[in-house]
Amino acid sequence: MHWIAIIIIAVWMLVGGVLHMVMPEPFFRAVPDGWPKLAIVYLSGIAEIAIGIGVLMPRTRAIAGLAFAVMCLVYLPIHVWDFFRADPIFSVPWAASARIAVQLIIIALGLWLWQRRTISI
Fold first, then answer.
1. Which of 65, 84, 98, 117 is least crowded, fewest Cβ atoms below 10 Å from its Cβ?
2. DSSP, res 29
3. Would I find Transcription regulation among this entry's keywords (predicted)?
């Protein structure tokens, strides 16, 4: 199970981080008005790439798992906010609910990985 968690987190973060860099515009709607959208999207993309790489390396895996959980926890209010928006990021109503549920699951996954500090692939 541990290597599955490692792969899920690594792929999730690396793909997400790269998408933040090459296609930042779709992520702008998740950034509140008045905030520097491009800078926030780029910074979050860089953080996601760092976490994705970190989780693959045994020496940094635990801290990367914790960073993943914290980042997902920080993103959780954005997903809750999106659920109540008049113009949600995803136009399908159930998508915001699904995102919140997935967010809770992946937070737990990151914490689980962090608690297993001696895991190696």
1. 84
2. G
3. no
CB 55 within 8 A of CB 10: yes
Which sign does the torsion angle of CA 5, 6, 7, 12 carry?
A: positive
**What would the pLDDT profile of 2-20 be if each residue is shown by its tens digit?**
888 899 999 999 999 999 9
51 located within any domain: yes
Q: What are phi and psi of 100, to 5 degrees?
A: -65, -45
Phi-psi region of 34 (alpha: psi -120 to 50; beta: other; left: phi over 0): left
Enumerate residues 6+ apart whose C-beta is below 8 A from 110. 9, 65, 66, 67, 68, 69, 70, 72
107: containing domain: 2-115
